[in-house]
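A note from the maintainers: we've had questions about how concatenated examples are separated. There is no special marker in the raw files; a new sequence line simply starts the next protein. For clarity in this README we add a label.
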Amino acid sequence: GYYQHKVKDFREGKGQDPSGLNQAVSKLSVTPAAQQKQQEILKQVEQPFVPKEPPPEFEFIADPPSISALDLDIVKLTAQFVARNGRAFLTQLMNREQRNFQFDFLRPQHSLFQYFTKLLEQYTKVLIPPKSMQQRLRDEAKSANSVLEQVKYRAEWLKYQEAQKA
């Protein structure tokens, strides 16, 4: 929320005045060879971004609904316990708490059921990760460059999408 607001302010020109930064940069003396290298790097960076396909969706993000903190905790903890103890636990819980209004989100017609299901999937992936995810995490842990490339691609994709909307 706060950072999104600050980014929006900066884009609209309401951000902090960067003139102090420009003065500090202008005081630095740079050799001609370093300037030439900077220009080459800038040319590489300024190459136009051509999107191939959208970046993969984030796997572990679920925006919480506007409900009380107690209800949100109940939904989250229930999803954690079901992920840990399996579907049989969910069935027993549904039978035991069928008259308890705090567990109404276990019914498919309830508005929080989709949120509960998404949390359940995410907790299950964390507690019992698939082999492919484990391998991908190992590979990404070994190579910070691959992670940086993914981040850069996502940022460029978002910038491209925003330019298309404008």
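[label: protein 2]
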Amino acid sequence: MRSRTTVELFQYWNDVRGNRDLPRRDEIQPGDIRSLLPNVFILQTEPAGGIYFRLAGTNICSLFGNELRHRQFSSLWRGDQQEDIGRIARQAIESCTPIVLAASGATAAGDWLDLEILMTPLASRDGKGDRVLGALSPLSGPMWLHMMPLQHLMLEQVQENSEVPEMLTRAGNTVIRLDTHRSPIRRAQHLPVFEGGRRN
């Protein structure tokens, strides 16, 4: 984890869940993470299999120049990665496994922004996992940030276990495996690495 927002949100999620696999949505108190809210989002699953933004913080919406509520999460990503992104989010929920994505965002002018994305699973009141509490954080502050909207995101990798603090490994030893032939996954201890990379 490279972003303070990522670390603090994960710590909060971990504290709220206690000894359970995941906390319930109604246990998340916005006032407890007030300083993080501009970079926080919640995703929700749909019966048809889609995953959409239930809410998105102001900084996230500003990055894309649009309100993201009700928009499909996968629609933010490069076309050939959208199906895989949906699988990652769904399997994070189904496996009760928080994951950290290293990503980059591109503007229409060809500028790039490195980002870190945390996805932690949440349950509804009945205990069924159906949501994601996450954070999307820029890792730098170029002059054009929030003035030139991002056109799409590109997944670089799911970070190796050695790149995240000890508290993330405590979250569980589940390996997330993607059922895809286009995007090979190589195992890196507890977490997989998505073989992405920018295409010019």
